[in-house]
Design goal:
Layout: H1 2-25, H2 35-47, H3 57-70, H4 75-88, H5 95-110, H6 132-147, H7 150-156, H8 177-181, H9 186-197, H10 202-209, H11 221-236, H12 241-258, H13 262-275, H14 280-292, H15 298-305, H16 318-357, H17 365-409, H18 419-434, H19 436-439, H20 443-450, H21 457-472
Helix pairs in contact: 1-3, 2-4, 3-5, 5-6, 9-10, 9-11, 11-12, 11-13, 12-14, 13-15, 14-16, 15-16, 15-17, 16-17, 17-18, 17-20, 18-21
């Protein structure tokens, strides 16, 4: 049933895109204006609309692919010219738009046999790593790998682009090799993997974990158990996404018993980050699974992203992808409860009306049940809204702390703004503007607790611009 629904969805989407492209290419103005140029400009204007486009970014990518198929003699050349102009604008382009540009271009390459005008971008080969264009090419090639595989990139890219090919996305199991086998807990990890493959019970796995004995007094045994079991889950499920989900679902009860503090949750995420350090797509998806499974919480995810080990990754796309999906998950929970509450209230009013029509002396059982459900849902909604507020405050606080520290370190040369600083400031702006409807509810708390007068002026400028946008809505 799901496969049929998916097939129908993509069939309807393909038909809609074809009709849209066909309608665009048959406008009567074609003889009077450069129609292809105007269409490309309009589509990119919609794609780069801030804080978010009206449609899913994938829609615009599909539309451009369809237009290229319908007018192969003219449209690809016009699109290539637009791509060159956008590439030249990268140093001054908002980081959110750079993300969308790299995502679109990687998708477009996957539909054109990965043929690109690589010679037009050869200047990036000699650039330093802190140049926006070089970062764009690296990030774009990593996204291309999501649509294909690393060996495909090796085959299609010119030799001088080989250093830009993403690292081998293989997992990095901590207890692999001679050095790994000598680490504390390696023997227990090996026994656990064998036990899992032999389909032992949960009690048997816990007994194996409890066999950990370390002579070194500086090693925290409970933390070591969390680390060993997390590595085991990752190793057992490293073959594919489905294997990862299956391993997590099967071993979740045992992991939940081990993870009892904020430090444990952060340790789980740190191990996931190390294991999938070279495969950011799986890292992103698996963290979302951990969050939805209740093994880690939003505070742990935020702490992981803003930790010192992740600071150098801030110019890349994937840390903010992880944060954005975390925010979406938390807000989604609150929205779902709110929607369920509205439905329950509507049903309660209908039942109440029916009771009145039948002139009942007391409420019917259904009405009483709905009234109890509404009370529970209201309490659940209060908790969900409190989680969202806590998320906004914690994220804003971490942004300010990491930016303030960086600004203090670079104050000696105020004329130079590093790429890292620019990206992080624009990510703060992206976060605040994208969720401006929520921001309106927490303005007073943010003013009094986070964005105070002792915060650097450049950070406050971003926040104040967002406040103006909120007040204009």
């Amino acid at each position: 049933c799901f496969s049929l629904s998916l097939f129908l969805f993509f069939s309807l989407l393909s038909l809609f895109l074809f009709l849209s492209a066909d309608k665009l290419m048959h406008l009567d103005l074609k003889t009077k204006v450069p129609l292809e140029y105007m269409i490309v400009e309009a589509i990119f204007a919609e794609l780069f609309h801030l804080p978010q486009p009206k449609q899913l970014p994938l829609f615009y990518g599909c539309l451009l692919v369809e237009l290229c198929k319908m007018r192969p003699a003219t449209f690809p050349q016009v699109l290539a010219q637009a791509t060159v102009l956008l590439y030249e604008s990268i140093p001054t382009m908002n980081v959110t738009c750079v993300d969308r540009f790299s995502t679109w271009f990687s998708y477009h390459l996957s539909h054109s046999q990965y043929r690109g005008s690589w010679e037009d971008w050869e200047e990036v080969i000699e650039m330093t790593d802190d140049q926006p264009k070089k970062l764009f090419v690296k990030d774009m090639l990593e996204k291309v790998m999501r649509f294909s595989y690393r060996e495909r990139l090796v085959d299609v890219l010119p030799d001088n682009y080989k250093p830009f090919i993403p690292a081998d996305p293989s997992p990095m199991y901590k207890y692999d090799g001679e050095e790994g086998a000598a680490l504390p807990g390696a023997d227990v990890a090996r026994k656990l993997i064998n036990a899992i493959r032999s389909r032992v019970t949960t009690d048997d796995m816990e007994r194996i974990l409890n066999d950990i004995s370390i002579d070194d007094a500086s090693v925290d045994v409970p933390s070591l158990k969390v680390e060993v079991f997390t590595q085991v889950i990752l190793q057992v499920g490293c073959q594919s996404f489905s294997h990862s989900y299956g391993a997590l679902a099967k071993l979740r009860p045992t992991l939940l018993k081990l993870v009892s503090s904020d430090e444990d949750r952060l340790l789980v995420l740190s191990n996931v980050g190390e294991f999938w350090a070279n495969h950011h797509q799986i890292l992103t998806v698996f963290i979302d699974k951990l969050l939805r499974a209740g093994i880690v919480d939003t505070k742990a995810v935020i702490s992981f992203i803003f930790s010192s080990s992740m600071k150098d990754e801030f110019c890349w796309f994937y840390p903010w992808e992880i944060l954005q999906q975390t925010v979406t998950t938390v807000i989604g929970r609150a929205t779902k409860v709110e929607s369920t509450l509205k439905t329950a209230k509507r049903n309660f009013r209908d039942c109440k009306h029916e009771d009145e029509k039948r002139a009942l002396d007391e409420e019917s059982d259904e009405t009483k049940r709905l009234e109890e459900d509404i009370q529970k849902l209201m309490e659940e909604l209060d908790g969900a809204e409190e989680d969202v507020k806590r998320l906004f405050l914690v994220m804003s606080q971490r942004f300010v702390l990491v930016l303030q520290q960086s600004l203090d370190d670079s104050r000696a040369d105020s004329k130079t703004t590093p790429l890292w600083l620019r990206c992080t400031l624009e990510r703060l702006q992206q976060f605040l503007t994208l969720h401006r409807s929520r921001l309106r509810r927490y303005i007073r708390s943010l003013d009094n607790l986070i964005f105070t007068e002792d915060v650097d002026q450049r950070i406050l400028d971003v926040y104040r611009r967002c406040k103006i946008l909120v007040n204009c809505k």
